């Protein structure tokens, strides 16, 4: 504690010391020894994670110049020291990513690890996958590995559902701040996912190194601070400076992280489960060798779960394994499609209690998902599993699920008979406890009260178990109540087909309803649940799942809806629809969007147009997905007409999403709507519509198709205008978004024209006659551009590489693209992609090889 803080404590009223005053961040700048003392306290306040946030927040604050214009953070001694303090805290935590991920948000941890890369002297502007870790200083190599471990872990963690913190009334004004952090997180995740293959390659490469590594500790970071002041002795460059991490420790941690990312990829690539299982197997072996290690931070229970899941998913469980554990037994029944044996196992478990509830619920969800996907013969199995789980919950005194109450809305006699059978067998013990008997009696009462058809009520009330568990007086009262209620029910009434006329289900706990709200993809059911929960509590239910996201462009319009129920319904229907599009479940997306459109049409023309735009994007993506899968059917004239209408739309005060415009333009390009893009776009549209300018604009695409159609003479003037606008484009964020857009294109002529343009730009800014990069149509472009000094040469080079690499994924045998790629790698003296051992564009650094001889020796005879 500082002297000022001590004075404040001693001056407390009444002469008694008050609670300790929290140490301020600036006190650590004034006293160099304070940080270590603070971190070694039993309960430091602020915590280590809070301090990292404070230090980085202060170091990254923008400054103002004399004209009160916002400037980037100043690179001065104060800010460098603050960043170094944040790194020292992470070093004190032994770079434990588990701890750092729990305490820091993705943007803060991204900033921290980028600072680690900087102080560790990782070469800037060079992709990590292009670095040779074996030649780097130990602390430099370790910084690269820590960053790429965090990158793939973040991708995995972002796919897990998480419960969002519900802000109180005093926090509602923080919505914009929360939204900004959310957008930053999304942007970082986009980049991490785009670079995931590179991160995996870096970590796989680390497994081939069998030497000890060293990571920065507090001492080496102190030396780095001294180095910045000019008083260091170069010790941080030594091979043994820092905290020693053995090869086994590093491999154990890296294999665990790689197993996690491969396991996540298994849902789209079945072979990835095999890779994940191998990494988890070797992780287990290394853990046994290491025993207890201070430098290996992983969840052994999660590792065991991953291992069992991989063995189940890859079919490597042996006969003994299949029955050795309850998990193995259930999984074996699922894999062999032995549905009745599975139901029987659930009934028996109602008395043995060997299966945890979460496993039983997970199995039911899996079968429901299969049934929704159209797998036949599973409806009865789903009902039977649901009944088994409901009886198990009842015996434990828990509330009944929403799904079970749904079953009782229109049950058959066969279903009621099955419920009674399960109840009877679930109490088949010599001496069931009094609690179990009472819970089962309550369940039987609930069953009677939930049935509307009197004959079915009599089936239950005349059953042997019912008469054993309930006293005669209770039975009479209950049956009489059912008689009276039956007389008032109009059994012939049917619900109206409108989306607005949906009956509410039986009342259950709000937690169960929220869970059902998260899981349901049926619009009517979503509205029904919202009606019920709004009757129980007055709060914002669109907040209950952090994975429900609507575009920032629409958030203010939706949250401006006055009626709370309507607001929740619009938000949730849109968020669920967008999620379905992401996972390519276009059928459910259409249902959800149609329901939302019907709802908003009644009260908001703006939201109606928003939904029409999103439904257009849905149809465009659905058609492009079919095309990517090999379908060559051209889009309908109606869809093309709707796309044109969107590009020409001019509605005042209408929120628009850039991605819709981008995908519409990419759609027109991919399906060769040349005449529209080159001739028919109204001239005012170029300036009025923000989605048809420069990198995604009319001039741009007119130019592309002019080249494709060889209208060369008419394009030179437009080309000059485009080239002169590239200096602001080549910022990292814009470049990333541009590459993301390019990857929506698959038309070879468009890609050829893009490669030609960027190769020309590359040759202009690089001005290297010896290592010239070639491409088609280079002669049509202007030979100079304005403000050339403002163009980032490295950014242009990276864009050209990524553009050519993407084009070759579509057609690996395109001769022109291969020559361009060969020139790029020759000029930068880098090896071609390692994934192509017979790469046709292979060259040597000493000589250019004629195209006729660019063949791998293993392919020649």
Automatic annotation (TrEMBL):
Domain INTS8 TPR repeats: 507-694, 732-834
GO cellular component: chromosome; integrator complex
Tree of life domain: Eukaryota
Gene Ontology biological process: snRNA 3'-end processing
Pfam families given in the database record: TPR_INTS8
Compartmental location: Chromosome; Nucleus
Protein family membership: Belongs to the Integrator subunit 8 family.
Descriptive protein name: INTS8 TPR repeats domain-containing protein
Species of origin: Gadus morhua (Atlantic cod)
Gene name linked to the record: ints8
């Amino acid at each position: 504690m500082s002297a000022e803080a001590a004075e404040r404590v001693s001056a407390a009223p009444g002469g008694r010391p008050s609670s300790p005053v929290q140490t301020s961040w600036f006190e650590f700048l004034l006293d160099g020894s304070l940080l270590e003392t603070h971190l070694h306290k039993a309960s430091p306040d602020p915590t280590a994670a809070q301090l990292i946030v404070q230090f980085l927040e202060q170091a990254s604050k923008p400054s103002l110049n004399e004209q009160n214009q916002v400037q980037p953070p100043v690179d001065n001694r104060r800010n460098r020291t603050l960043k170094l303090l944040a790194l020292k805290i992470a070093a004190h935590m032994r770079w434990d990513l588990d701890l750092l991920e729990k305490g820091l948000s993705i943007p803060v941890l991204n900033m921290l690890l980028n600072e680690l890369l900087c102080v560790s002297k990782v070469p800037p502007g060079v992709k990590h996958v292009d670095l040779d870790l074996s030649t780097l200083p130990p602390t430099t190599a370790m910084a690269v590995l820590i960053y790429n471990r965090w990158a793939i872990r973040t991708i995995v963690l972002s796919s897990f559902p998480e419960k969002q913190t519900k802000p109180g009334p005093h926090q509602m004004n923080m919505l914009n701040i929360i939204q900004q952090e959310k957008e930053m997180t999304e942007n970082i995740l986009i980049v991490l996912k785009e670079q995931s293959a590179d991160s995996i390659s870096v970590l796989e490469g680390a497994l081939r190194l069998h030497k000890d590594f060293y990571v920065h500790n507090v001492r080496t970071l102190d030396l780095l601070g001294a180095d910045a002041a000019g008083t260091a002795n170069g010790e941080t460059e030594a091979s043994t400076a820092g905290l020693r991490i053995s090869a086994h420790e590093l491999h154990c941690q890296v294999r665990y992280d790689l197993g996690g990312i491969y396991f996540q990829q298994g849902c789209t690539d079945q072979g990835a489960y095999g890779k994940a299982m191998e990494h988890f197997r070797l992780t287990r072996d290394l853990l046994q060798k290491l025993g207890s290690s201070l430098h290996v931070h992983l969840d052994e229970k999660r590792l065991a779960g991953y291992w069992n899941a991989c063995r189940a998913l890859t079919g490597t469980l042996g006969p003994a394994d299949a029955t050795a554990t309850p998990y193995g037994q259930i999984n074996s029944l699922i894999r062999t499609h032995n549905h009745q044996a599975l139901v029987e196992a659930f009934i028996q478990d109602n008395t043995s209690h060997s299966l945890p509830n979460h496993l039983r619920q997970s199995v039911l969800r899996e079968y429901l998902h299969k049934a929704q996907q159209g797998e036949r013969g599973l409806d009865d199995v789903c009902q039977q599993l649901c009944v088994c789980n409901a009886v198990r919950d009842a015996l434990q005194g828990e509330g009944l699920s929403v799904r079970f109450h749904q079953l009782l809305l229109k049950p058959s006699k066969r279903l009621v008979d099955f419920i009674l059978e399960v109840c009877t067998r679930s109490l088949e013990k010599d001496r069931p406890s009094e609690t179990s008997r009472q819970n089962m009696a309550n369940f039987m009462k609930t069953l009677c009260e939930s049935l509307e058809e009197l004959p079915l009520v009599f089936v239950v009330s005349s059953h042997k178990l019912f008469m054993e568990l309930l006293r005669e007086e209770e039975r009479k009262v209950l049956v009489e109540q059912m008689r009276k209620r039956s007389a008032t029910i109009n059994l012939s009434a049917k619900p109206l087909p409108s989306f607005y006329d949906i009956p509410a289900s039986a009342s259950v706990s709000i937690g169960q309803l929220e869970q059902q709200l998260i899981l349901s993809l049926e619009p009517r059911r979503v509205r029904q649940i919202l009606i019920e929960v709004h009757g129980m509590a007055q709060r914002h239910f669109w907040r209950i799942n952090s994975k429900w996201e609507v575009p920032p462009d629409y958030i203010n319009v939706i949250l401006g809806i006055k009626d709370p129920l309507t607001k929740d319904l619009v938000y949730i229907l849109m968020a669920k629809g967008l999620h379905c599009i992401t996972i390519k479940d276009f059928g459910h997306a259409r249902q959800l969007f149609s329901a939302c459109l019907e709802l908003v049409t009644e009260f908001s023309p703006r939201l109606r147009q928003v939904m029409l735009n999103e439904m257009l994007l849905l149809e465009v993506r659905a058609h492009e997905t079919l095309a990517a899968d090999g379908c060559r059917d051209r889009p309908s004239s109606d869809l093309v007409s709707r796309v044109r209408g969107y590009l020409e739309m001019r509605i005042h005060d209408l929120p628009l999403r850039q991605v819709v415009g981008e995908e519409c333009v990419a759609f027109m390009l991919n399906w060769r709507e040349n005449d529209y893009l080159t001739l028919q776009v109204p001239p005012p549209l170029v300036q009025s519509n923000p989605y048809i300018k420069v990198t995604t604009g009319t001039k741009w695409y007119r130019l592309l198709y002019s080249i494709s159609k060889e209208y060369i003479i008419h394009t030179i003037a437009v080309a000059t205008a485009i080239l002169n606008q590239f200096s602001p484009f080549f910022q990292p964020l814009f470049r990333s978004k541009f590459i993301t857009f390019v990857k929506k294109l698959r038309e070879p002529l468009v890609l050829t024209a893009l490669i030609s343009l960027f190769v020309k730009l590359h040759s202009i800014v690089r001005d290297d006659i010896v290592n010239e990069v070639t491409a088609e149509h280079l002669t049509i472009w202007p030979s100079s551009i304005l403000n050339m000094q403002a163009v980032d040469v490295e950014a242009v080079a990276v864009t050209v590489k990524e553009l050519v690499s993407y084009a070759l994924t579509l057609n690996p045998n395109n001769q022109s693209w291969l020559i361009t790629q060969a020139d790029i790698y020759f000029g930068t003296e880098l090896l071609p992609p390692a994934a192509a051992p017979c790469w046709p564009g292979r060259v040597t650094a000493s000589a250019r090889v004629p195209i006729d001889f660019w063949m791998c020796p293993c392919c020649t005879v």
